[in-house]
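look at this fold:
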Amino acid sequence: MIKFLLSLLLTKFKLIRFGISIFFLMFCVCNIKAQEVSGELSEFLLKLEQSDKKTNTIKADFIQTISFERTGEKQKIVGTVLWGKPNSLYIDQRTPQEQRIYIDGKTITIYTPSESQAVIDSWRNSINEDFPSVFIVNFGSFWKDIRKTSNIILEGHDNNSVIIKIQPLKNKNMNAKIYISKASMLPEKAIIHSGITEIEIVFKNYSLNPELSKDIFKFKISNNVEIIKLY
């Protein structure tokens, strides 16, 4: 489920070109020796993995705040995300501009109603940067892949959460911290530092295993919508 959260955050990813600053870090897998994880962290990750196996669909509200360190400017993005195993995602972004994002594991479609325009790109093209974006909620399923490209560190605890830090092996300027609820084993917050921006995303109002039609993850093309394909 952390993959779902790790798919809402971004900085210099290609998605930012379309004005979406959202979601869930989906880490690319490379041929790098896997980090050895042991002790308390290993036990926690295994519990997270077991919890994730019980979840097939998710609905949650999110608030994402992007802070630009050089200018002091901040941007807030509010919306709702729907996720279906293994890789279907629908994001209803309400502010600052209404957008609807559809991801099916192969393509990503970003529809802007005010412009009657939909941009379609290959999902692979959109996640091939240093610290790919768009999925934290499925961390329980994907931590074994993530550790091939990043160090996973038990950062600590607070009253409600276990804090996991992810540090990419190839980009020391970036890192992410994920706050996972001790009670629900769901991501409550994630913070990404990129050197020039800080992105914080907070999840609220989780609904686990709601009934979701497969059609909700598909963009329906109509005659009055301009389609721009980038792949």
Remarks:
- Confidence is low (pLDDT under 50) at residues 1-36, 128-138.
